[in-house]
Amino acid sequence: MRIIDGISYRTKDDLAGKFIGLEQYKPGDPSARDLLIKMTSGTSGTPSMLAVSLKHIFGKSRPIYEEPLLIVQSRNTFMLQWAKLFLEPGARASRLLCLSWRDQEHSDVCRIIEEFQPVHVFSFVSLLRSFLETFNAEGRSRAFSNVRRLYLTGERLTEADIRTFKSFFPNAEIEMGYGISEAPGGVGGHCRYLIEKYPKSLGRAYHPLLPVSIVELDEADVGEIAIRTQELGWYLTGDAGRLVSEPCVCGASQTLFVEGRINYDIVHCVGATVRTDLLEKAFSPLRNFVEEYSVEVREASHEERTVGAIAIAIVPTALLRSRADAEAFIAGEVAKTLQVTKTRTLDDLVRDGIFLPPAVSLVEALSRGNGKKVRLRKVD
Amino acid sequence: MNEKPLFMKIEYRDGTPHLLGRTREDISAENYGSAAYKRPLVMFQSVQDSIEKSLWHYERNILPLIAEDNLELTCMAAAAFRIDAIVGDAASLSRLSGVLNAYLDTRRIRQITVIDVEISRPFLATLKKEFPQATCIAILKPLP
């Protein structure tokens, strides 16, 4: 629990190993139908368990529920949630198909989708990307010809993703939602007027679907996104964002800009993965030179290509200060040892032009501390 | 267009997938035995089966815990939920065998419901040994 400006906020760490919200469950009572058990593996490997009420989502009729919907997912809990919403009393007649890993990998999956004829597709960005790799050109045109809406969540869309998805779903509009597993129904909703107002903001600008506040603002009014849910009260999402009060044509009055992850433990970037545990391993031999560090990962344009860029802020020890080549020394050592794919180091990817050499800066103090020594985030 | 929303299942006949539509009423009307428990773990190889049987429990005002593919995560969740029953197919129950007892006291399990196209007596005997306090219910489902 963290207390900020007198308000108590739950964090992901507070949920590890706990089962929140189960007191709502009264076996045999019809209210049990409104509940769903959600579990997350959590950052520590200890699952968090939540019994969440779907009551506030039921009855919110959306076009996505009213026409054939294909779900490409990896978590059974998510798919059960969709099924419950889809089959709720009074729901419009349509059909829902959830594809598990096993179904996704079947050689006949293309024919099944063709038979199902989805109009909407819901998935996570990375999951859909890998799923589509199994389709050939002929198969994709038959399976996805009727898709009018591609509804995505999860990580941010890259330009390459948009090109890929447009080629598979030429008649579909791409919508993105912002959600976290602790909040069924999502945190931020897509709005086409917002995308028109803020071009290139797909996957970044949303209207809040829950009470949202931003805490510990920096000079650019960016801070950590906090949400309030029935089960959790105020909860820190770990995401960075900015909240703007402004009227929208759709009637909403706030815009939430999601800027990335704060203290993210895993960052995906141009096919590589930066992980806090491997960062710690890379910095471990440098403990005589580095008091503290923080790392920001971004995708950048370089010579008309998208490359990965890592910025490292270091609070140096006296020993490092005494070195004339302090920045280059740290950059070289970290790149040499930081594993960013199963078999390759950052140095390998720098040599291949996939990443820029890490940019190291020496600072007096890290710009924002929250008790964690390692700060890793993906920024835009 | 059908008159009611359909949850589509993928049935594999001789390895070939086929679509099968199920309404909420279809699912509710199924007989998966008496649900004389409060906290079931629902675990099938097919995600559509897991969802279908979970929905069946909801129709009876019972909150199910749907298993994930990750066995360790499922077992930890089952312990946290304090499950008192397991509903699954033979393959999934076999996966739990010898693993679940590391996470919870399997004597707490009051009922095991096996739903499959083939259920052998030795398998049921194994279940009985593993879950000594549980009533085992075997429900044969027709071949797809």
Please outline what is shown here.
Chain A is an alpha/beta fold.
What key phrases describe this protein's structure?
heterodimer; A: 380 residues; five-stranded parallel sheet; 13 helices; 22 strands; 25% helix; B: Rossmann fold; globular
Question: Would you mind describing this structure in some detail?
Answer:
- The complex is a heterodimer of chains A (380) and B (144).
- Chain A has 380 residues and is α/β, with parallel strands linked by helices.
- Chain A has 13 helices and 22 strands.
- Chain A is globular, with a radius of gyration of 22 Å.
- Chain A starts with a strand and ends with a strand.
- The model of chain A is unreliable at 369-374 (pLDDT under 50).
- Chain B is an alpha/beta fold.
- Chain B contains five helices and seven strands, in the order E-E-H-E-H-E-H-E-H-E-H-E.
- Chain B has helices at 24-29, 47-59, 71-81, 90-96, 121-130, and strands at residues 6-13, 16-22, 40-43, 65-66, 85-88, 111-116, 135-140.
- In chain B, a hairpin with a 2-residue loop joins strand 1 (6-13) and strand 2 (16-22).
- The longest helix of chain B is centred in the middle third of the chain and has 13 residues, at 47-59.
- The A-B interface holds A 17, 19, 22, 25, 27-30, 32-33, 35, 37, 39, 41, 46-47, 49, 51, 74-77, 79-80, 83-84, 86-87, 89, 91-98, 100-103, 106, 108-109, 111-112, 115-116 and B 1-8, 10, 16-17, 19, 21, 23-24, 38-39, 45-48, 50-51, 54-55, 58-59, 61-70, 73, 76-77, 80-81.
- Strand 7 of chain A pairs parallel with strand 1 (6-13) of chain B.
